[in-house]
Amino acid sequence: MFGDDFLAQQRLLVITPHADDETYGCAGSMARVKSLGGEVYVVLATTGDLVHFGDGGDGRTTKLVTHETRLREFESVMRLLKVDDWDVLFDDSETHLALDVMPRKRLVSLLENEGRLSIERLRPTMVMIPAASYNQDHEALFHACVTATRPGVPSQRHVVPWVLAYDNTSLFWSFGHERFHPTCYIDVTEYLELKIQAMRLHASQVRPPIYHGSPESLELATRVRGREVSVEAAEGFALLRAVF
């Protein structure tokens, strides 16, 4: 597990497909890095109007959630976690849930050097990216992030020393490729309550406790990750690169 001295030195960039994925995967780690004096930046890939399953009232099982609502919720979470800055790449409904049909070159360029919080501009010491899943935006962004963090000549482009893929409560439903297996952990015992508070601020996405992505289930999942390494609560990551 990463210790305080190490985390305090990090300039962390979190890249998230949708508003709330950053909370599922690494809100506790973000809070811990900030509390220790490190820097945290977040790039949200896409948000847009969407009709999805949920209590729509009057017996309806679907509801419309606008991109304005998702952005307000996301910004409230960024303030709660005290991140240094955040940016949104796309806020239109045509792009939302359609990153898989966007040329990867465009996504990579934004992540690598064209975006306001691009890797070249921030020069982060650590990048956390979404693990691949059945969601097309997650899958597309994962591959774009891998490309954007590829090795290169240090004098010509910034090579991120630490690249990690973060967890999601939906990853149990993964067929056709290997299940997510954490290879490193961050103890977030002291930040678990804050992580769950952040999840509740994504109010349009909150569902009943039985749902795998509910705040209650997220707390259970974070505690399970903790038990895997003998702490109360932890976030698990797949380590893609480590340069000492």
From TrEMBL:
One of its GO terms (biological process) is glycoside metabolic process. InterPro entries: GlcNAc_PI_deacetylase-related (IPR003737), LmbE-like_dom_sf (IPR024078). The keyword Chloroplast does not apply. Keywords: Zinc. It comes from the Bacteria. The keyword Zinc applies. GO terms for molecular function: hydrolase activity, acting on carbon-nitrogen (but not peptide) bonds, in linear amides. It comes from Phytoactinopolyspora alkaliphila. This is PIG-L family deacetylase.
